[in-house]
Amino acid sequence: MIDVGDERFEDMVVRALDSLPPELGRVMANVAVTVRHDAGPPGLLGLYQGVPLTNRTTQYAGVLPDRITIYRKAICAICRSDAEVVDQVRRTVIHEVGHHFGISDARLHELGW
């Protein structure tokens, strides 16, 4: 286990988001990414809550933003170095962004995410 400070961890999340291909960033819509500094629900490193882009219809309007939450303590608990935290943050961010695009857990695991 390694403990990464709040600001450093948040910077890792921002860098992971910035590393996404620009074409993905342009089509992400109505989604907020937040960091929780507690452990979060057992077994979760991140959580997507909302309506995936693939499920949105013309009736999709006036709703609160989807939310991607990244759990700092849960990620730090499974990592032994700063480099592992950076890698796991990126993997978690990509995984949760995948859900925003309508990709299932099973398919993300098939793809290695």
Automatic annotation (TrEMBL):
CDD domains: MMP_ACEL2062 (cd12952)
Gene3D superfamilies: 3.30.2010.20
Taxonomy, superkingdom: Bacteria
Pfam families referenced in this protein's UniProt entry, alphabetically: Zincin_1 (PF06262)
Signal sequence coordinates: none
Protein name: Metallopeptidase family protein
Lineage: Bacteria, Bacillati, Actinomycetota, Actinomycetes, Mycobacteriales
